[in-house]
Write a structure and sequence with these properties.
mainly beta; 11-stranded antiparallel beta sheet; 4 helices
Length: about 260
C-alpha cells in the first residue's frame, strides 16, 4: 500500500509545523489498535458518516462529516465536513463563531478543495503537496482522523498516529456494537523535537470489523488547570463497500 498511496497523496517536508509521533517509537501499543491499523491499510474501499463534538470553556461545537475512499487503479477520495457552533454561555460580548462547510475530493490524481462560505476553490495536482490541504484546523482533527490510516504513507499528523503508548481496557458497546476499548496517551512534536499537546485519548474499535467507532480526546496537559478542550468523535464506518463514481463526482456551479 505504502508506495502506491504515497504516489497519489504526496507530502512535503514542510507540510506542518507539528509532526505526527509515528516518527517516534511507541513505548507500547494495544493489540486491538495495532490490528485496526492493519485493517485500514488493507482496505480497497471505505465509507463513513460521523459527528464530532467539541467542548470548550463557555461554548461547544458540533460537526457532521462523511468519507468515501476507493482504490481502483488510482485512488478516489471524498470528505465533506460541516461545522456548527453552539454558544451556550449567555455572554453578549463573546465572539460569534461562524459555521462552515469544507469539501475535499480526488479524481484522476488531482485533489480539489472547496470552501462553501467563501466560494474558494483550489486544485492540487499530483506534483503539489496534496496532503497539506487535509490538515485543516477548523475540522478539529476530523479531516485527519481516519484519512491518516487510509493514506498511511503520507504520515498525516492525526490523533491515532500520535498515540505513543496504549493499552487494552476491556470491552464496551458503542451504538449497540461490541467494541474493544483502548486507552492511550497522544502527543505532538515540534521539528526541534520538543514534545507538546500531550493528552489522554480513548479509542473504541469494533470487535467484528476492527474499524474505529468512537474516539475521545481529553484536554491537553499544557492547558490551564480549569481549561476545557475536549473532542468526541462518533463514526458509523463501512469496510470495503461498493462505491460508484457518483460518490466522487462533485458538482459545484462554476467548477468543472
Amino acid at each position: 500500500m505504502g508506495s502506491r498511496v504515497g504516489s497519489r497523496l504526496t507530502i512535503g517536508a514542510t507540510m506542518v509545523a507539528l509532526a505526527t509521533t509515528a516518527l517516534h517509537s511507541n513505548q507500547s501499543e494495544a493489540d486491538a489498535l495495532r490490528r485496526s491499523k492493519a485493517v485500514y491499510a488493507a482496505l480497497t474501499s471505505y465509507a463513513d458518516t460521523g459527528t464530532v463534538i467539541g467542548e470548550y470553556g463557555g461554548f461547544s461545537s458540533h460537526a457532521a462529516f462523511k468519507t468515501y475512499f476507493r482504490r481502483k487503479g488510482t485512488v478516489d477520495f471524498y470528505f465533506d465536513y460541516t461545522l456548527q457552533y453552539d454558544l451556550y454561555a449567555q455572554d453578549s460580548s463573546r465572539l460569534t463563531y461562524k459555521n462552515s462547510r469544507r469539501l475535499w475530493w480526488m479524481r484522476n490524481r488531482n485533489l480539489q478543495t472547496y470552501n462553501v462560505e467563501t466560494k474558494e476553490h483550489r486544485t492540487y495536482p499530483p506534483t503539489a503537496n496534496q496532503a497539506a490541504s487535509l490538515n485543516e484546523p477548523r475540522t478539529k482533527g476530523a479531516s485527519l482522523l481516519i484519512t491518516e490510516l487510509l493514506f498511511r504513507s503520507a504520515n498525516l499528523p492525526g490523533t491515532i498516529l500520535q498515540i505513543e503508548e496504549s493499552s487494552d481496557a476491556g470491552m464496551e458497546e458503542v451504538g449497540g456494537h461490541p467494541c474493544f476499548k483502548v486507552i492511550g496517551v497522544a502527543a505532538q512534536y515540534y521539528p526541534s523535537g520538543q514534545r507538546t499537546g500531550v493528552r489522554q485519548v480513548t479509542v473504541w474499535i469494533d470487535r467484528d470489523t476492527l474499524l474505529i467507532r468512537k474516539v475521545f480526546e481529553d484536554t491537553a496537559k499544557s492547558y490551564g488547570p480549569d481549561a476545557i478542550n475536549r473532542l468526541t468523535f462518533l463514526l458509523d464506518p463501512q469496510a470495503n463497500p461498493t462505491l460508484d463514481d457518483s460518490k466522487f463526482d462533485v458538482q459545484i456551479p462554476g467548477i468543472q
